[in-house]
Amino acid sequence: MKNENKSLTGLRGLLALSIVLYHIYGSSVLEGYIPEQTNSIFLLNYAGPISVNLFFVISGYLITGSLVSKGSIWEFAKNRFLRIYPVFLTIHLMIFAVGPFVGYKWMTGISVRDYIIHFFSNALMLPGIFPLPIAQIVAWSLSYELAFYLIAASVWATARSCSLPRIAKYAVYALLVTLCVVLVYYRKDMLFFAVGVIFYISRNSLSRSWDRSPGFYFSGIIYLSGMFWSYYALDTPIIIALPLAFLLFIGIVQESGLLAQLLRSQVMHYLGRISFSLYMWHTMVMFGLKILAPKLSAMIGAPTFWVYAVLSLSLSLIVSDLSYRIIERWFTDRIRKTKKAVSPDKRTALNEA
């Protein structure tokens, strides 16, 4: 892939894998497969929140760059839609098709009215930002992502507009700042998007001043460990986690240091490519295994936890690989090619309509 930052791709893989392990551990405790751990495994309790927040930093960094490079809001929106919705809608339709019949979460005995309301509220990714019942456990973060996309695109469109008077631009900016303050007040983790945005804006000066001396070789691992410590030891970890996330990204974007080197491995690069599908599908795989794992454990005489953990990880990887190849690549490529196949005259007519 041209100009690909393999350390950044590998980081996506590490974060997605960490979230899977976080959910395996957490659900195993909830289901009674294992007791809550008091050793170092206990740190898995923080792997999920930290990983999601670092995904927000990645989005802040990449989405800012994407907006700057795109020629229009339409182009940006189309790319975001094709990146997220094919996988998301596949799972969404699957859940709402079978959920009421298999007792999936809050869908047991759901009324027709509530079914319709929650079908569309979830399709629009409202649960997360808004306190609504959520069908896909992990989709709350997509609600945050969508809110960030809308705000970032609004800032970009306002700044680029030549028709808006200056006073109108100031009014829009004031409205957006107010919206950001409200969002951060209720959803403090959205501050991690700002870390990515600030990093993108300052990337050139950071590149010139970044010290690649041997003393910084372990800095990425130190900063990541510091984030885990802040979540373990502090009541308000975000105060420490935000600057540590910024410092962590210096080595990742510069592809410098031991952590960046490890993230460039083939395994991490592969996990990075399927990371979105892995993030979206693993809880669906685990839902079925919560029913099957105890029965399989009794049949083969193995501890339920290990049956559940091994099958959750392996089947999640298999399903995610298929999702990446079929939905993220094959299906979306067909859509893009279909749009490109529209003739210039027809495209002009569509644009004028």
Automatic annotation (TrEMBL):
Entry's localization field = Membrane
Q: Locate the Acyltransferase domain: which residues?
A: 6-323
Q: Please indicate if the UniProt record lists Secreted as a keyword.
A: no
**Has UniProt tagged this entry with the keyword Transcription regulation?**
no
Lineage top rank: taxon: Bacteria
Q: Which UniProt keywords apply?
A: Acyltransferase, Membrane, Transferase, Transmembrane, Transmembrane helix
Q: Which residues form a coiled coil?
A: none
Q: What is its main location?
A: membrane
* Family the entry assigns: Belongs to the acyltransferase 3 family.
Stretches that traverse the bilayer: 12-30, 50-69, 81-103, 142-159, 171-202, 214-232, 238-258, 270-293, 305-327
Q: EC no.? A: 2.3.-.-
Primary enzyme class: transferase
Extract the GO molecular function terms from the UniProt entry.
acyltransferase activity
Query: Mind telling me what this protein is named?
Result: Acyltransferase family protein
Q: Which InterPro entries match?
A: Acyl_transf_3_dom, Acyltransferase_3
